[in-house]
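Good morning C.,

I know you're traveling, so I'll keep this short. The sequence:
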Amino acid sequence: MHFAGATPVLVDCGPDHLVAPPAVAAAVTPRTAAILPVQLNGRTCNMEALQAIADRHGLVVIEDAAQALGSTFRGRRAGSFGAWGSFSFYPAKVLGCFGDGGGLATGDDAVARKLRVLRDHGRDETGVVETWGLNSRLDNLQAAILNVKLDGLDREIARRREIARRYRLGLEEIAELTLPPGPEGDLDHFDVYQNYEIESERRDALRTHLQADGIGTIIQWGGRAIHQFAGLGLPRFDLPSTERLLSRCFLLPMNTSLSDEDVDAIVASIRRFHGLST
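The tokens, ready to paste straight into the viewer:
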């Protein structure tokens, strides 16, 4: 948004770690042009509520679906709701190449053509430069890797959901923890569990305990929200739910190299920290 000349207006998240539609509705002004929801951790926002806000005010919806390839909300896939949706093919993503890569999805032919021109130095189909553009082409090596891995995407997602189910079964009795919904916990959502992000009352102590057991964890963005990075020059935003979340959340290991035994060992370590039998 910044590079397009727009001014980002940040709003608070809900208990599901996703943008809260009431906060979006409250932030709309006559200057608002678009709503940009982030489909975080492999879960899709309540896009019906967000689209209703957009329709009411004549706004465009643009999806950041970088972490949500394969995720759905009420049977509709992330990236298919707005004017366009963006996906990341970074190696850590559900569908990852060996380097950097990404893709855009749109159902609008005019938008698709404009995006193709912009990604290739502003050149049209004949090679004539018709506008300013970027060098944003996916190279052939990464495309070939993704083409092969695409055949295994459904298996990748199924395994991630199995791991999430195993985490939940082992940890759901611990009152100090807030876990993502289980794979069968919310019929509106089909989550792909790009990340398994939990909240803990004693996050730092728990992470230290896990590290001592040889289990690495990650705090996304270093535990700071975008409005807390002074170098971006954003105005001050009052986002108490977001700031509380970032003081409590961290990622447990989540990838398909994990065996059931690996997951069980992580669960056992967390249970020991909380004084529970393993």
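Safe travels,
E.
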